[in-house]
Amino acid sequence: MSRVLAVYSEKGGVGKSALSAGLVAAARKRKLPVIAGDLDPRGTFTAELGIPEDEAPAFTMNDLLALDPQGETGLAADAFAEAGKAWSGVQVIAAERALANRETDNVAVGLEFRLRLGLKGAVGPGAVGILDLPPRAGGKLVTSALVAATDVLIPATLDEDGRIGAKEALSTIKLVKDLGMNPDLRVVGIIPSIVPGGRSTLKDAIGEYLADTYGSLYRHDLAIPRHSVRQQTRFACVPITDAPGREAQALTDAYDRILTASGVEA
């Protein structure tokens, strides 16, 4: 069974795009077919995968969500664009600034279900889809991704932004499930993100709060360490799996563990 993983928090700066890119890199290293969908109009995920804003493909996520499928499935394949050379084999559904217009699109009926219909049949057996969501409360773009996903991952820095972003993301996810839009959506967990080494009163306090509040949903075992090599690979638009050194390996191992926890088989 293919998995579609949504990476979501309602706060920016908590490592959503970093986690999304890391998961793509880890899945690619496993030689799995990967589809990367960017639902953030800022296009950070798209750019890291080697598609600059001024080279956006002719058919993007914006076009896919603006198109009424009239029940037809698999239309996402028309939006697939090859990632940059360093990410060979990865198919990207790119974001562009105009994607923000979909939030106020009052004409498109059933927009929130279009991505799910589009991916059906386009994400084949054994493939994995990675969706990077914008940091906002609900909205049509967020809902589209949560309706299309099989699983959702919530990265949380161990500070107040991470705590608030996780809390509010869980509220939105619950609403999508309760409304019957995707009742089977599984929360893999709240994943400590960009975690600094050593002890810190704030880091420890936030970690304890998340563990006490959310129990087994808080996945300390999947923590993503903070290493400068992550910013280096982002700037160079190359996968973390291609970088040398112990820090890159530590990040690669973390992303691989998260893939496994999300039900993605090697």
From TrEMBL:
Domain CobQ/CobB/MinD/ParA nucleotide binding: 6-211
Stored InterPro entries: CobQ/CobB/MinD/ParA_Nub-bd_dom, DNA_Partitioning_ATPase, P-loop_NTPase
Species of origin: Streptomyces toyocaensis
Tree of life domain: Bacteria
CDD domains: ParAB_family
Descriptive protein name: CobQ/CobB/MinD/ParA nucleotide binding domain-containing protein
